[in-house]
Amino acid sequence: xxxxxxxxxxxxxxxxxxxxxxxxxxxxxxxxxxxxxxxxxxxxxxxxxxxxxxxxxxxxxxxxxxxxxxxxxxxxxxxxxxxxxxxxxxxxxxxxxxxxxxxxxxxxxxxxxxxxxxxxxxxxxxxxxxxxxxxxxxxxxxxxxxxxxxxxxxxxxxxxxxxxxxxxxxxxxxxxxxxxxxxxxxxxxxxxxxxxxxxxxxxxxxxxxxxxxxxxxxxxxxxxxxxxxxxxxxxxxxxxxxxxxxxxxxxxxxxxxxxxxxxxxxxxxxxxxxxxxxxxxxxxxxxxxxxxxxxxxxxxxxxxxxxxxxxxxxxxxxxxxxxxxxxxxxxxxx
Length: 334
Known about the structure:
Elements: E1 16-20, E2 23-27, E3 51-54, H1 62-66, E4 72-82, E5 86-98, E6 105-118, E7 123-136, H2 147-153, H3 182-187, E8 193-209, E9 213-232, E10 247-270, E11 273-296, E12 313-333
């Protein structure tokens, strides 16, 4: 039984919640306060809003509003072969994995090539290379104010959408708390993007000499480029952020690492004893840069209008750089 409160007089659910400039309340069919002609939504000036939402008498199942069945596809084509002198492998892969959490996904395009050449009985050359591009929206479920938490905390008597098809929420009525509409949170990220391009690989040479010795040198590393942007619109449906202004973030970064490894190995069998000694050196260098910024109060929310220069307030920018190096000597006895 519903308790007798200001929201539910006589323990009965009202038909509507509403809120406007200086007013907020409940109403039933035919009440002047919830007449659809009163409805006002102004994306650029939320102080003018007069929003009305119908109370879902059966309750809103927020968990199933944000989790839906999803499909994925993964395709790989591989070609491999070889002879006594050469071996090779080439593969390409396409992954499209839609998240069961709405508006989440991962798309990845990848290619791999591995080869090894036996120039003579004692000399080998080879390489391994892997490159990929991946794309997904900028989304995190690692903080307290994420959509999954909000789905658990949002009252079921608040609808997903109001009478005009805009988002329902805690602003549109009296004493509805300060939680956020999780469907709105996720759908507002549908134009956000996080893109990454990576190349990982190495080339190597090995030489056997004097029967028991092998010398090997390997040069490899990674190249990582990322670019991402996100837009947070005015959250008119939320009690806490009804009067917030929209904001756009755009960032890019570049990283690379280089590794040069050299080893000398001795291996021998002496009767029942097997001895293996390895010694080597390794030099590593990492460096990278990043740049980005944000701005707020955009006149339009069209994705093609959203660039940092079109924001009219709270314009910020940053850039960072780093570099580090490591040189090591190592050995092992088996």
